[in-house]
Specification:
The complex is a heterodimer. Chain A has one domain. Helices cover about 85% and strands about 0% of the residues of chain A. In chain A, helix 1 packs antiparallel against helix 2 and helix 2 runs antiparallel to helix 3. Chain B is an all-alpha fold. In chain B, helix 3 crosses helix 4, helix 4 runs parallel beside helix 8 and helix 7 runs antiparallel to helix 8. Chain B is globular, with a radius of gyration of 22 Å. Helix content of chain B is about 70%, strand content about 0%. The chains are: A mainly alpha, B mainly alpha. At the A-B interface, helix 3 of A face helix 6 and helix 8 of B.
Chain lengths: ~80, ~230
């Protein structure tokens, strides 16, 4: 259990750092959504299923979609 | 240079936050008001999900403010994005067969799941906000998979307005019956039954419709204008 949770936390940290260094903004959005998804799993393990549901649907699905729509209107690569 | 300064600032902020969080003990008995909610919440409100009893009953007025903030955000987005000029309908590339079939198969299931979440908000984890967000992600799937489909603006606006109106009217009825806003004037029933907890399920169903149609409307606005 503790091994799994630490693996998730490490994955989340890697995702957060990757989201800030990627030049390709679509990849950055996907990794940011991954951070949200792992956060919702951690909320579930911390016995907060209410927050986990909101985080999974808003953080991982809707926010990523809004960012991707915005990127489609502008430039995909950061210079 | 700027990057080094920002990293240094982040480290200082993280250090401060962790220093203040380390002082809070983890898992010890709660404060007085927290203990009251946990011990008396089921008896006083009839809702077995304590989070719901806090969100809708004890702190119901705050929830009304939260719903209003979301409403204003959706209106502002619509006002900024809607130019009034009806652009020519761009030819949309149809989705692939896998996405199309998956979306048609999954959309009703997601709707049923979201509805279940907000109808059972007072019994199981979840509630109006979570159910509404799940329903909105179902509509997002429709926009990805079945691209020529559009949700009806009139129906979405109607659901949104009726949801908000129900919340306020029930609050005012409490004012009329017993003297304060959002009084739980309906019978509480037996705890753990679907028809229990008085006005809490009604308010959560209203919030579910409101949040679902609002978030779906935001997605609709963004996709229409891009």
């Amino acid at each position: 259990m503790i091994v799994f949770v630490s693996f998730l936390v490490v994955l989340m940290l890697v995702g957060a750092v990757a989201a800030s260094v990627f030049r390709d903004l679509i990849s950055a959005v996907i990794t940011a959504a991954l951070v949200s998804l792992i956060a919702s799993i951690l909320f579930y393990f911390l016995q907060a299923p209410d927050v986990a549901m909101a985080e999974a649907s808003i953080g991982a699905a809707l926010t990523a979609a809004i960012f991707i729509i915005a990127i489609r209107r502008t430039k995909r690569y950061e210079e | 240079m700027r990057r080094i300064i920002s990293i240094l600032l982040l480290v200082i902020i993280a250090f401060g936050i962790s220093l203040s969080l380390a002082k809070i003990p983890f898992g010890v008995p709660k404060t007085k008001v927290g203990r009251h909610y946990i011990n008396e919440g089921v008896k006083e409100t009839g809702a077995t999900n304590i989070v719901t009893s806090v969100v809708v009953s004890y702190r119901g007025f705050d929830t009304l403010g939260e719903v209003t903030v979301l409403f204003i955000a959706a209106i502002g987005l619509g006002a900024v994005l809607t130019t009034g000029v009806k652009g020519e309908m761009r030819k949309v590339q149809p989705a692939s067969l896998v996405l199309y079939t998956g979306c048609r198969l999954l959309f009703p299931l997601i709707l049923v799941f979201g509805t279940y979440i907000f109808i059972h908000g007072h019994l199981t984890p979840g509630g109006g906000f979570q159910g509404g967000a799940i329903i909105a992600s179902g509509f997002l799937l429709i926009y990805l998979g079945c691209r020529e489909r559009r949700i009806s603006r009139v129906a979405s606006n109607l659901a949104e307005s009726l949801g908000g109106l129900t919340f306020v009217v029930i609050g005012l009825l409490g004012l009329a019956f017993g003297g304060y806003f959002l009084l739980n004037f309906l019978p509480k029933g037996t705890a753990n039954a679907l028809l229990s907890a008085g006005i809490i399920p009604i308010i959560y169903i209203a919030i579910g419709f409101k949040v679902g149609s609002e978030l779906a409307g935001i997605i609709d606005n963004l996709i229409e204008e891009s």
